């Protein structure tokens, strides 16, 4: 039986072609990522735009009756209007009959955002290449729609790719992050923390997160308020529907079309809660301190606007809801701070973060949800973004500051009480150790026994 042994020593150098094969193998993966990104963006574009076009065509046929009279329908007109409305939902102004409309129907924007999210969740790959390809394709799609629609003019054409990249990138990013192969949200948060500028204090970033929490709670409270308005104004809305007599097809289109402006009404309700209120037409004002109404478009949803009954001494306390959202944000921030390391500068930074984030986000949202909705009186719609944002920042910051400062003062008081208790305990222990030493008597000799000895029995010894 023979055995073979390998010679010891360095192995001979060989040229391994594996690295070259690995580089070549990456190219199909990159191409796959690009292809999936392009397909994802095309799906999102077609889905969101098709919904708007379908509603516009249905409304056109119901209004003109072209399908029943035998006239040749002009399909280009409703498609162009639908494309313009789709771009308006992205924030691109629409020009019709010489009037520029800047009011953004946020429902259409939400539809496009959801289409991007759903498409990325279904078809994209969790890679930067796939996300970039999808975002670039969506940007080019919005640019092409703006050029072909004929409803976008001037500088607004340059705005289309910017808002397309912003909305598409956000939706695709959210969809990619929920895929199974994507990193966990905790890992994404840690990477974001590492990428944060060193000049931005950590407590300021924590305060900004608290401000987003307060904003989300405030929008939720505004949604509940709008539901209450709708219930209170259901009779007015029913009268508007009866006067319009839209029919079954027009009724479906009208109901779905109102969903496009429902998010805007919710944001207007945020302005109502904050105090300044909002306008639906020049010279109108709906606020907790009074209502100045005027002629409104025949839209059933507008029947839910608050009437004079909603301006009373009770509703004047509505800004307390905004302050309560700030209180929750303050609790959110304080529970994530280390009480042993909190300084007064940290308190100031955290309150600034809460107030700043809430005010900026609400101001930007009010700016998007307002503007010009048509000619004449409809040139002024929505809440004042600067005033509303400033008041929300003050009210939310006040609520958060009350919690954080109060907790810091309570912590300082408890620390003083604890320090005093410990000092008192040390003093008592020292006194207890000294007193026994002073009270101990000096050592003395035992005294002699003075008791006489008992007599002895028997004769004395001699």
From TrEMBL:
Residues 449-462 have a biased composition (Pro residues). Keywords: Membrane, Transmembrane, Transmembrane helix. The keyword Amino-acid biosynthesis does not apply. Signal peptide: none annotated. The chain crosses the membrane at residues 30-63, 94-116, 128-149, 155-178, 212-232, 317-335, 347-369, 389-406. Residues 1-20, 428-462 are annotated as: Disordered. InterPro entries: DUF6350 (IPR045931). It comes from the Bacteria. The keyword Transmembrane applies. Pfam families: DUF6350. This is DUF6350 family protein. The lineage of its organism: Bacteria, Bacillati, Actinomycetota, Actinomycetes, Micrococcales.
């Amino acid at each position: 039986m023979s055995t073979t042994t390998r010679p010891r020593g360095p192995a001979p150098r060989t040229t391994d072609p594996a690295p070259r094969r690995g580089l070549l193998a990456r190219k199909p993966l990159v191409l796959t990522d690009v292809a999936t990104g392009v397909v994802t963006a095309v799906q999102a574009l077609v889905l969101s735009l098709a919904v708007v076009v379908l509603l516009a065509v249905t409304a056109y046929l119901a209004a003109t009756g072209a399908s029943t009279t035998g006239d040749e329908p002009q399909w280009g007109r409703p498609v162009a209007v639908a494309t313009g409305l789709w771009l308006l939902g992205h924030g691109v102004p629409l020009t019709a009959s010489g009037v520029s409309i800047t009011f953004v129907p946020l429902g259409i924007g939400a539809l496009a955002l959801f289409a991007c999210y759903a498409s990325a969740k279904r078809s994209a790959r969790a890679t930067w290449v796939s996300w970039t390809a999808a975002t670039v394709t969506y940007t080019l799609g919005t640019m092409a729609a703006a050029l072909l629609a004929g409803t976008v003019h001037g500088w607004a054409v340059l705005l289309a790719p910017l808002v397309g990249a912003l909305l598409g990138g956000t939706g695709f990013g959210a969809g990619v992050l929920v895929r199974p192969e994507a990193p966990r949200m905790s890992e994404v948060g840690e990477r974001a923390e590492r990428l944060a500028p060193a000049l931005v204090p950590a407590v300021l970033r924590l305060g900004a997160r608290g401000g987003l929490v307060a904003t989300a709670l405030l929008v939720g409270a505004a949604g509940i308020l709008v539901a209450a308005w709708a219930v209170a104004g259901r009779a007015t809305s029913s009268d508007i529907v009866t006067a319009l007599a839209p029919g079954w097809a027009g009724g479906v289109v009208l109901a779905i079309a109102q969903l496009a402006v429902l998010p805007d009404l919710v944001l207007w309700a945020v302005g109502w809660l904050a105090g300044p209120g909002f306008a639906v037409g020049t010279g109108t004002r709906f606020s907790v301190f009074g209502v100045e109404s005027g002629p409104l478009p025949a839209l059933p949803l507008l029947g839910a606007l608050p009437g004079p009954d909603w301006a009373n001494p009770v509703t004047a306390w509505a800004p307390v809801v905004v302050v309560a959202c700030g209180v929750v944000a303050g609790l959110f921030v304080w529970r994530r701070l280390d009480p042993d390391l909190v300084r007064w500068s940290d308190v100031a930074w955290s309150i600034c973060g809460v107030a700043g984030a809430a005010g900026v986000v609400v101001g930007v949202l009010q700016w998007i949800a307002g503007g010009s909705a048509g000619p004449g009186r409809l040139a002024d719609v929505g809440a004042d973004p600067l005033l509303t944002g400033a008041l929300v920042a003050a009210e939310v910051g006040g609520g958060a500051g009350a919690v954080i400062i109060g907790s810091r003062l309570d912590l300082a008081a408890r620390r003083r009480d604890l320090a005093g208790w410990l000092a008192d305990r040390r003093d008592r222990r020292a006194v207890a150790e000294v007193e026994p030493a002073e009270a101990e008597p000096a050592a003395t000799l035992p005294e002699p026994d003075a008791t006489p000895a008992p007599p002895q029995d028997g004769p004395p010894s001699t």
